[in-house]
Amino acid sequence: MSLRALRHFVVVAEELHMHRAAERLHIAQPALSQQIKQLEQRLGVVLFSRANRRLTLTAAGEAFLHKTRLALEMADQAVLDAQRTARGEQGRLHLGYVSSAMYDSKLPGLLRRLRADWPGIELSLVQGDVQMLYEALLDLRLDIAIIRAPLASPPDALVVRPFVREKLCLALYQQHPLAGVGALNLASLRTDNWISLDDPQGTGLEQVFMDACRVAGFTPQVAQRINDVYLDD
């Protein structure tokens, strides 16, 4: 039983006149009459009464018409859903992010705009560290992730693009001898103990920090590692 046959049945039920229905469908009347007979044979019921050269729906026809309209509406909606999903206009988007990504206004603003412009997209947000998000991308559990650069040797399956660029800041305790200096040379802090982010090796802000120290000519003495950064005013 094809959707085409069901659509033809609905038109005949609406017109209750085989000739007008055939004209509306742009097909020959005998072919349409034969199609309705085949549909009745397939269902094992009489859909139309043909008494006195007039077409009327039987009780079975009325019941079938109601459900057929619902089925055709669902079929049409299924086609639209598939097309919209293929165009990226609806569906579920699994987005991962490191917590510090929310400190910048760009990501929250982008999420608000996405919800406003694409209401058919359901957002699934996952917060995690760089390693967890990286593995989730490779396992296809995430569609996109906002992580800290750099990303060590990403595979060809991943497309990496810059999202936002931020300046790094140096934080010193108030009693530090260089706390009041306006501009600092990183090498002047070579003997200090450091607090560093605990990122996976070769990935994230820790690697940026290590690379900067290496350029300055020293390896930092890391006294404490932390998982995230939060500054409370």
UniProtKB/TrEMBL annotation:
<feature type="domain" description="HTH lysR-type">
    <location>
        <begin position="1"/>
        <end position="58"/>
    </location>
</feature>
<keyword id="KW-0804">Transcription</keyword>
<dbReference type="InterPro" id="IPR036390">
    <property type="entry name" value="WH_DNA-bd_sf"/>
</dbReference>
<keyword id="KW-0805">Transcription regulation</keyword>
<dbReference type="Pfam" id="PF00126">
    <property type="entry name" value="HTH_1"/>
</dbReference>
<comment type="similarity">
    <text>Belongs to the LysR transcriptional regulatory family.</text>
</comment>
<keyword id="KW-0238">DNA-binding</keyword>
<dbReference type="InterPro" id="IPR005119">
    <property type="entry name" value="LysR_subst-bd"/>
</dbReference>
<dbReference type="Pfam" id="PF03466">
    <property type="entry name" value="LysR_substrate"/>
</dbReference>
<protein>
    <submittedName>
        <fullName>LysR family transcriptional regulator</fullName>
    </submittedName>
</protein>
<dbReference type="GO" id="GO:0003677">
    <property type="term" value="F:DNA binding"/>
</dbReference>
<dbReference type="GO" id="GO:0003700">
    <property type="term" value="F:DNA-binding transcription factor activity"/>
</dbReference>
<dbReference type="InterPro" id="IPR036388">
    <property type="entry name" value="WH-like_DNA-bd_sf"/>
</dbReference>
<dbReference type="GO" id="GO:0032993">
    <property type="term" value="C:protein-DNA complex"/>
</dbReference>
<dbReference type="InterPro" id="IPR000847">
    <property type="entry name" value="LysR_HTH_N"/>
</dbReference>
